[in-house]
Amino acid sequence: MKSISRRAFVRSSMAASAAMAASAATMTSDKALGQDSTGRRLKIIGICCSPRKAKTTAASLQICLEAAEEAGPNIEVELIELAGLQIEGSVAAGIPLEPGQKDDFPKLIPKLSDPKVGGIIIGTPVYFGNMTSLCKAFLDRCIAFRKNSFALSNKVAGVLAVGGARNGGQEITIQSVQAALLCQEMIIVGDGRPSARIGATVWNDGKGDVSQDEFGMSTARNLGRRVVEVALRLNGITR
Question: How far, in Å, CA of 173 to CA of 132, rounded?
Fold first, then answer.
């Protein structure tokens, strides 16, 4: 075996260390941009479960998604409104649709199970202390993801609820939605700091302008940021 001098060994070690440091710096630079060295991007999807299109729940989710998008330059966001879609919850129980009956749920499956989707935020109005029937039907139909190797597993999930009073059942509603998402093996988060509570709790005072609910808007922004923060970490990406 060829002998190697101590000086040559030290030089070789220093060169190797420098190469490793340069590689680490490159990886850190990539991750700081919200993507890894492959250029992979993360997407956050908001699901609006209000039967009224483009109303207060959609507006609240939009605030949430804007905060998520601002959390990193390579974060994509999309708002999907279920209003007007035909989603029959009984299909989850094995009851077939009537001949000719429309079903819009299947077209949501590839959108939500896409590997680049790192987080999903569910938004619902509060009806009698709980989620809307449209939200429940959607969550029931999500059994399709369990049957497909738990396609939503380890995606981050946050919940936003809009009530007709400051304490109008938002937190109870959020917990109810979270229970269904836990059954999908999703990673549940609340709204982030400084409030850092169960989720986004928004008050619709009847005037149709939730932007005046300063506290509720702060929880919506916190939730959007928190979903992105955890999604980035789960995907090995640091800001």
Answer: 9
Report the pLDDT value the prediction gives residue 12, as an integer from 0 to 100. Answer: 45
The predicted pLDDT at position 54 comes to 95
| 3-state DSSP assignment of residue 77 | strand
Measured in residues, the chain has a length of 239
Query: How open is the CA angle 27-227-218, to the nearest 5 degrees?
Result: 125
Which tens digit of pLDDT belongs to each residue from 155-191?
999 999 999 999 999 999 999 999 999 999 999 999 9
The pLDDT of 98-122, averaged and rounded, is 97
110: left (phi over 0), alpha (psi -120 to 50) or beta: alpha
Closest residue by Cα to residue 83 from 48, 33, 114: 48
Task: Judge whether residue 96 has pLDDT over 50.
Answer: yes
Distances (CA, A) of 180 to 40, 152, 203: 29, 12, 23
Please spell the DSSP secondary structure of 13-34, one letter per residue: HHHHHHHHHHHHHHHHHHHHTT
Look up residue 115 and give its two tokens: 């590997």
Listed as own residue / partner, the contacts of 101-108 with beta carbons closer than 8 Å and 24 or more positions apart are 105/138, 105/141, 105/144, 108/80
What whole-number distance in Å separates Cα of residue 196 and Cα of residue 198? 7
